[in-house]
Structure formats: C-alpha cells, structure tokens
Amino acid sequence: MEDYHCLAFLVVLLILRFRLPKKHVYAVPSADAPIPWIGTILELYKDGVTFLRKSRERYGPVYTLTVGHQRVTVATHKEGVMRIMKDKSLENNINIWLFESLGGVESGTITRQIFRLLSTSVLRSFSARGITQLAPLYSDCVIHETTSFINAHKGERISLIEFVSFTIYRAVSVALFGPKFPLDTQLDLQCIIYYFPRLLTPRMFLPRTPVEARARVISALDSFIKENWNQKNGFPGAADAGNDLLRTLRSAHLTSQTELAILFAFIIGLHINTLRVTCWFFALLIHHPTALIAVRDEVDRLIDEEHSGSLNSLLSSPSKAVGKNSLPFLDSALNEVLRLCVLPVLVRQASSDIHLALDGDRSVVLKEGQYIVADGHVLNMAEDVFEDPERFKFDRFTKYDDRQGIPTPPLVSAFGSGPNICKGQDFAIYEMKVLVIVCLRMYDFTGETLTGNKLPSCCPKASTTLPTPVKYLEEDVYLRFNERIHPT
C-alpha cells in the first residue's frame, strides 16, 4: 500500500487547508499560485522530487511545514530517513482513511482492529511461506492469460499497459478467488486506477466516471460472493489465500457495505503498485537490450539445465522461481526497478508520544497522531552508495551478498521499508517475476512508444523519478511478440 501514501498525504493537506507560515526559518517555500497552499500541493504532486530537493537546498536536511494546526517534520537526509523507516512506533494509519475513501464509506467505518485483522490475513497468506499453494495456481493462469492475449492480437502492436493489466489482473483474480470471479471488471479497474487520486477527494468533487466504475465492481463482487461463497469450502477452485481473506472479513461481523468496500479497496491495493512497477520492468528491459539478453539467457539456462526444458517445472515451486540465487540477474534487475520506482513522499504517524533521534545532531519530539515525512529518494539516490544512481543498471545488485559480508545498502523499495513495508510484497514480487519469466521464455519481443522512443518519457523529467504514483507510464509502450521455438 506504500504507493497510496504520496497522493493520500497531499489530499489530506488539501482537506485540512495547507497553511504555510509567512516568515519562518523552516517554512517550505510555496509555489507561484494565487493561494500558496494549493500551489504547494500542486508542486508536490507534479514534481515531488524536485520540490523536496529545492526545499532541502534552502532549509537544510530537516525542516517543518504546517498542516492545518499541526507542524509536520520533513526529513531529507539518509540517517533521518533510515530511522523513520525502522521505527516501530511510527505507523501507516493513513491506510485506514485510504480504504474508506476508495471504498466510498464514511470516515470511522473501518477501525484499527478491523485493519489489523486484514493485515494479519495478508501477511499470513501473501508472505513467502504463505504463497506456496497460491503460486502454482497463479503461474498456470499467467501462462494461459498471456498466450490468450497475445494470440488474440497476433500480428498487432500490443499496448504494454493493457497487456500487463489484463494478464496480471485476470491471473491473480482467478488464482485467488476461483474461475467464477467476474473478470469483466478488469476495464473498470483500469479506469479506477487512472482516476485514483480523484477518488480520494471530498464527495462533492468526485467525478462520475470512477464512481460509476466503482459501483459496477462492488455490485459484481456482491453478486459473485452471494452466488459462490460457502463458509466451509470457500469459493470453488480458489486458493486458500482468497478464502482466508473473506473468512477474516466475515469474522469481524461487518455490514455488507463495509465488507464489500474493504474487499474492493484491497483489490485496488493489490494491483495499483504491482501493475505500475511491472510496466516499468518491461519498459526498462526493452530499453536496455544487454539487460534483456542477459536475463533471458539466465532463464533459458536454468530451465534447460535444471528443469529439462520445462517452464511449468520451474514455476511449480515458488522457491525455485523466485528464491534467492536461482536467477541472480533477474533478481538484480527487479531490485533495480524497485529502487528507481520508490515514491518521493513517505508518510508515517506517531502511535504514541515519542522522541525520535534523526541523527547525532538532530531529533524531533512527536505527539501521538502527528505526522513525519521522509524523502524516499534520499537513500536510493545516494551517490556515495550507488554509482550513477540515476541510471538503470540491471546487474547492480549482483555484487551484494549478505553471506559474503557484502550486505545490500539500506534503501526504500517501491513497496516501502522497515516494519511498515507492504505485507504482500513477497507475492507482488512473485507476480512480476513469473510474468517476465513466461514472456522471456515463450516470446521474443520488442517495443517502442508512438513517438519512436524505446523508453517512455518520465514525469518528472529526471529518470530518477520514473513513474508517478498514478500513471503507469507517461507514454505507453507498444510491443510486438514473436513465439520462440525451443528444441525438444
């Protein structure tokens, strides 16, 4: 859920009427706009990396801004960011508000207890240990959906965004909830993700298109549950993870509206970050042929030498397909994408009154409920840690090995960091790896944008920022697939 935080925090600023002190040594400069707090929000949203960098250059590594009547601390140096990410007394409570806003229910409907139940279920079912039963179901679905989509568009240029969205959404949905899941909701899901930030605004500002799409998805989920759910056996053909999720919600004795709202928000959260990162994974591999060839050769070698040429044999066990050291180039390339795709604004909230030491010279006192913000790019773009940090280097992480005493440097991935890291990151990583492995093994593919570029333009301009939280890519990439023939 880390991908929600940047937008959610900005919407909170808007709702609370972001007010900046006129002359304060720590004040963040407002943008050129008739109303300063709106200008600041737009600057953060449009180019959060540049805004934070300019603020850091002007006010130092730690400064404060005013949100409503609260002072919010912003840390933009490595030591401070690391301590914020690791501190267990700082929580992601903003996710509760996000679920309520996305699901369209009143504030206060989803309690902390309900959210903890949901988080426990996700951790239990989507961790590395929990996906053992889910993984083979998902990999079979990926192969089926990939071949179906490509065969249906044979000879055509295929939109990368549509391909990734179609394949992952359908494969995950069928694996989790069984073959009777309403797959025709996929286009509405794309619409909702496109309009995602608008769903977080006050109801008076909600546009009709995503609201109607949400209503259709929730109605389809309602019918699906009523027609297929059995408390004892779950959904027909579904993985234990999907059944455990609904049983967990049922154990909380929620109203039907709240249950459906949470399930809907969960499905959006399950896909919004994974789809974004997967699109960039493909785009960056296509843009760097050396990386694509190295990763493909590695996949071929593992399948041919250890699995008798069988793709299904490799994917049947998640420990083989995604276990460490099985595919070091693939692992490194994905870690590099996750490093580049981190969001610029990471928000945490104090669960109690705390004194947080940000480094040897700086500390901050936070009251319960106060927010602190970390600049997510500081660790990942540190030139003293990562050589040419703005470049995509697919083999960057192959040199790190904890067993050899060369630990991976501290960083924040696209799924967050520390005790508040996304609980479903293990399955999300498996999702992405499986789709890339299937495509590399079964097809040769190339891609370019409509303007002839291999890599989409980025927003903001620097490659460090890559995708925004909302959009997959600034331009779509159009792929051409050709089936590979392997000797028997």
TrEMBL record:
The cofactors required by this protein are: heme
Q: Which UniProt keywords apply?
A: Heme, Iron, Metal-binding, Signal
A Pfam family recorded for this sequence: p450
Q: Which InterPro entries match?
A: CYP450_sterol_14alpha_dmase, Cyt_P450, Cyt_P450_E_grp-IV, Cyt_P450_sf
Stated family: Belongs to the cytochrome P450 family.
What does the entry list as the binding residues for heme? C422
Signal peptide per UniProt = 1-27
What is this protein identified as? Cytochrome P450
Task: Output the Gene Ontology terms for molecular function.
Answer: heme binding; iron ion binding; oxidoreductase activity, acting on paired donors, with incorporation or reduction of molecular oxygen; steroid hydroxylase activity
What Gene3D superfamilies would the database entry show? Cytochrome P450
